[in-house]
Fold this sequence. Notes:
- The chain is built from 3 helices and no strands.
- The protein has helices at 7-32, 38-58, 76-174.
- The termini are far apart.
- The longest helix is centred in the last third of the chain and has 99 residues, at 76-174.
- It has a domain at 1-62.
- It is rod-shaped.
- By secondary structure, it is mainly alpha-helical.
- Helix 1 (7-32) packs antiparallel against helix 2.
Amino acid sequence: MAKQISERTNVIINFVISFGAAIVIIGALAKIIHLSWANYALVVGLLTEALIFVIYAFLPPPPVDHGGTVGVDVDTTELVHALNRVEKTVSDVSTNLGLINSSTEGLKNLNHQFLAMSKTIEELNHFYGNLKDLSSSMSNSTSEALRTKEQLTALADNLTKLNQVYGNMIHAIQGK
């Protein structure tokens, strides 16, 4: 049977792995932002990671039970609850995606309504433009009609006077 690693050794290995990974990440960040010490941090971090892999090469594998699975105690009740929570979350996401899809359909319809309203407003603006031109034309026509009325009145007055003159001439010719 394979020799197991003590809990203390696991803690130390996890610390060294995390510390080495942190140094590599900090070194990569420093390299990205062009800091002068970035190369040293990357070398130290990568050497730490390499040392970790060498250590893992000599550590015994975790114990395996008779079913061929790694020896991990799993509470099946907790696992079922976790799976139920995942299923509910997936269901909620699916429902939300359906709502988002419905909302986007509503937005598409709203967009069509706005386009129709925009076209109607354009037609109304065109109509009001024509109405303004007609009003202006009628205003000009009104002033022309008043002028024509005045001229017709003056013409009627002149005709009345002319008729009186002709009437007087006819009376004079007839001798009456």
